[in-house]
Amino acid sequence: MERNIIVGLDVGTTKVCTIVGVQHSSTELEIIGIGTHPSHGLKKGSVVNIAKTVSSIQNSVEEAKLMAGVNISSATIGIAGSHIYSFNSSGVVAIKNGEISQHDVDRVLEAAKAVVIPSDREILHVIPQEFKVDNTGGIRNPIGMCGVRLEVHVHVVTGSISLIQNLVKCVEETGIEAANITLQPIASSRSVLSSEEKDMGVVLVDIGGGTTDIAIWKEGSLIHSQIIPVGGNHFTNDLAVALKVPHAEAERIKINHGSVLAETLNQNSHITVQGISGTKSREVPSSYIAKVLGARAEELFSLIKEQLEEKQLTNEITGGIVLTGGGALIKGLPELGEYIIEKPTKVGYPAPFGGMTNIMQNPKYSTVLGLLLESCSTQNNNNSKINNQKFKEADIVSRLGDSLRSVFKEIF
Ligand SMILES: Nc1ncnc2c1ncn2[C@@H]1O[C@H](COP(=O)(O)OP(=O)(O)OP(=O)(O)O)[C@@H](O)[C@H]1O
Ligand SMILES: [Mg+2]
Predict the structure, then answer these.
(1) Does the Cβ of 350 fall within 6 Å of ligand 1?
(2) For range 140-157, the mean pLDDT
């Protein structure tokens, strides 16, 4: 029997993760394969070494394939990196026949896309926020409505053509078609946020290794997205410099003993740290480690707060802040975030679904699980099995188009 195999592939700065799922029905999805491998060819979310990235992807894919016992030919991949730039736009068209058709919706979305962007950039997503028919706003699906004027407000995500191509090239060198490309925080939002949170107004903050990815939702729509080039690696680097220890030792200390709240720690508590090779181990106060990590966290949260104020979104966020990504696991981060941003803050874990093991219920897998769900919804929309040949012949622009269509259809 032919099975509906779907794949999410997250090429992160610290790890590459592949998840293979079987879609039994439009609502039933089961995970059958997982492969995670350290990533070596990326810096701040962008590919800087093709060969190393290809090798990391290959290892992760092989592991997932072996576990699932199936072949993988295409995947939904995530994209981030500081080259991503997003903005809101709008478009207006006159309605020809008095009743709005799919064609009118396509035309108004085209109009909203018709903004001047630099020639080295590509539009990744055009996500409708609301439609307005004549003077009535807040409409999700205008098809079939009567009117003379159709307006749409959209969120547009753009990225550097060459950096997107580099990622696609790395994936395709492993023999896998990059069937869809999705902005990473959109994927993480899908696996972590509830629809109530997205309605109320929420900031998803995915703290990865190289970047922190932001997605702000209000009334169910994406109203802002942004990639900040500061991630968990910066916390580790700060610690390595402050303690004069190798990167690996700083990472161990951060994960096992790190906190960002120096005041809450026992002032007599000390951690044994191993210096650069040849030097003796020594004792460092836990509160000193927390001060170093806390300074970086404070910087990151202040930046997010500033962004909210600059975009005049502070009052929109009644659902609060949801931290996810591996970097969200440092102790005390939600408390510090709440104190600085002055909004309820928590760590968001991916919601469990079929066949998901305990290991996957970790914020560092939010993106890849979201990519799998994205892949699943694209399949539902296409209402067919993945047609590999179709993707082989498609160029990158039309693949981005697929992703765009899936987001658009999902909204309805
Ligand atoms: N238990 C933990 N406590 C603190 N930090 C952690 C923990 N587990 C992982 N991290 C940190 O999370 C970061 C990696 O997170 P994640 O796996 O989400 O990143 P990534 O997806 O590879 O990178 P990016 O999304 O930036 O491309 C690393 O900096 C790592 O040190
Ligand atoms: Mg990530």
Answers:
(1) no
(2) 96
